């Protein structure tokens, strides 16, 4: 490493904890399981890890999780911006490592969201709170899913996007999940089945919405000097961007534009690549519309052309741009803040470890470049990370 440049940063370990239906464990145990597996995947000793990023568990998330894992980090991050959390945390961790403030940072997540509801330990909620700016919206009763539904309807009105095109997103995600043995739902579905399902929030029927699962995962980032000691091919962090656009719907200037329009542009610029160079995309998909509009905002197609872009299997495993190759939140798993799972799947694909769902690069070999883009809240925040194979 030259003293005149920042250190390069690689993802050196990734792993899933048990996912799907996990009734007899705790979120802390899923954190520990994912962390152990990611460390084993990396081949590095845990003593190298001096940074921890965690959110969503406990009153003092990184403190409590670190104690449970037996870590004493000197760098921590507890950024919580919903589904975009993990891409934003990965960007922060990469910056810290590049600047010499950490050697290796563990990003770890675990949730028993499904099991907790089944056991009566938690219930659904109408909103995240009624203080601050939200106080002016909460009395009208529109829930998180209703806000996504409103945005989808606006896109349909402005650009002629159809229900069938939105349904194609769910159908393709399920087709990708069909060859993923770790996916929770693998049986094929059709456009008609998506359209005829029970209505949740117009225009979203049940299959337009993500599943609810348990699960966890972990990602280990390390400085370039540790890469020779790792067990797997490194996947480098090439560029990242983050953006928040609004907290209330009344302050969202355009329902058809997500914050990925900014975070994606920044990530691609910093990585020195174009959307056309990307071999696969992992996109947060709590609802079908999220996939469609994020593809537009990342620059894979023009604004308003997302509906046509997702037709005819173009985002399938053998399509023009494979998207959510594990089945995504619509079919594989969705235990809460799913953004970290996007990074795990992107790394597995770039390493060539995806089994029957493995996609190819432009030349027919392994893919070279991937993008992971997480969205938080109701399109309130976005984090985008560009990754490249070593």
TrEMBL record:
It comes from the Bacteria. Residues 241-389 form the Thiolase C-terminal domain. This is Acetyl-CoA acetyltransferase. It comes from Streptomyces pakalii.
């Amino acid at each position: 490493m030259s003293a005149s440049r920042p250190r390069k940063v690689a993802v050196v370990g990734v792993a899933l904890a048990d996912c799907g239906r996990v009734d007899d464990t705790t979120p802390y145990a899923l954190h520990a399981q994912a962390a152990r597996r990611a460390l084993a995947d990396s081949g590095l000793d845990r003593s190298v890890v001096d940074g921890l990023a965690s959110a969503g568990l406990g009153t003092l998330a990184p403190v409590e999780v670190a104690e449970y894992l037996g870590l004493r980090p000197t760098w921590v991050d507890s950024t919580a911006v919903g589904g975009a959390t993990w891409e934003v945390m990965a960007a922060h961790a990469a910056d810290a490592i590049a600047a010499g403030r950490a050697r290796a940072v563990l990003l770890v997540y675990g949730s028993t969201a499904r099991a907790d509801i089944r056991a009566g330990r938690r219930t659904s909620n109408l909103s995240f709170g009624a203080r601050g700016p939200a106080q002016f919206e909460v009395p009208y009763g529109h829930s998180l899913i209703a806000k996504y539904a409103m945005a989808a309807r606006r896109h349909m009105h402005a650009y002629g996007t159809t229900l069938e095109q939105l349904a194609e997103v769910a159908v393709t995600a399920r087709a990708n999940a069909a060859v993923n043995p770790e996916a929770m739902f693998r049986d094929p579905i059709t456009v008609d089945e998506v359209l005829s399902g029970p209505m949740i929030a117009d225009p979203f029927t049940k299959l337009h919405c993500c599943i609810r699962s348990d699960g966890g995962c972990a990602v280990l980032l390390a400085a370039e000097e540790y890469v020779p000691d790792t067990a797997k091919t490194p996947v480098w962090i090439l560029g990242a961007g983050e953006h928040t656009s609004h907290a209330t719907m009344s302050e969202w200037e355009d329902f058809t534009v997500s914050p990925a329009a900014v975070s994606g542009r920044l990530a691609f610029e910093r990585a020195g690549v174009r959307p056309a160079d990307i071999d696969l995309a992992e996109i947060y998909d709590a609802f079908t519309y999220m996939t469609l509009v994020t593809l537009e905002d990342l620059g894979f197609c023009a604004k308003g052309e997302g509906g046509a872009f997702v037709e005819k299997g173009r985002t399938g495993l053998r399509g023009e741009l494979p998207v959510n190759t594990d089945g995504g939140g619509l079919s594989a798993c969705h235990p809460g803040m799913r953004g970290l799972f996007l990074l795990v799947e992107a790394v597995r694909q770039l390493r060539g470890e995806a089994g029957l769902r493995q996609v190819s690069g432009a030349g027919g070999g392994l893919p070279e470049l991937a993008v992971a883009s997480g969205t938080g809240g109701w399109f309130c925040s976005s984090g985008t990370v560009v990754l490249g194979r070593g």
